[in-house]
Write a structure and sequence with these properties.
about 55% helix, about 140 residues, mainly alpha
């Protein structure tokens, strides 16, 4: 399944770059196959803009190639092939809950401070002024 998601990712990254490349190839053919011919028929700004957009749309492909060549897309500590080691499998929720339940009864409740409730139980005074900055 992972192969298909990677293949679709590459395909969707290549589609815009290929489309722009075909348009550049067409305009180059119309202009006589040279930069001077393209400029003579007035397609210079169009070809320059398409080249800029093509480079921008090719960035995901370039980033993917760099990540593959440097190995940055691998999980740290994972082997190049096969299953990951057992100690890196992840979090075991059942074991964590069992540990919590085992230690829950042995912990003492926190002591209640005698000064936690103050003698000043009057309701708070409303703020002067009204809504907004002026206080009207």
């Amino acid at each position: 399944m992972r192969f298909f998601s990677g293949a679709f990712s590459w395909a969707f990254a290549l589609i815009p770059a290929a489309y722009i490349g075909v348009m550049l190839w067409y305009f180059t053919g119309v202009g006589g196959g040279s930069a001077e011919g393209i400029a003579n028929i007035g397609l210079g700004p169009t070809v320059m803009g398409l080249t800029f957009v093509g480079v921008i749309l090719s960035l995901p492909v370039i980033v993917k190639l760099i990540r593959i060549l440097t190995g940055a897309n691998r999980v740290p500590g994972a082997a190049a092939g096969g299953d990951p080691p057992l100690e890196t499998e992840g979090f075991d929720a059942d074991a964590a809950f069992a540990n919590y339940m085992r230690n829950r009864d042995s912990a003492l409740p926190p002591p209640i401070a005698s000064d936690a409730v103050s003698d000043d139980l009057r309701p708070f005074a409303p703020r002067p002024g009204g809504f907004g900055r002026k206080g009207v």
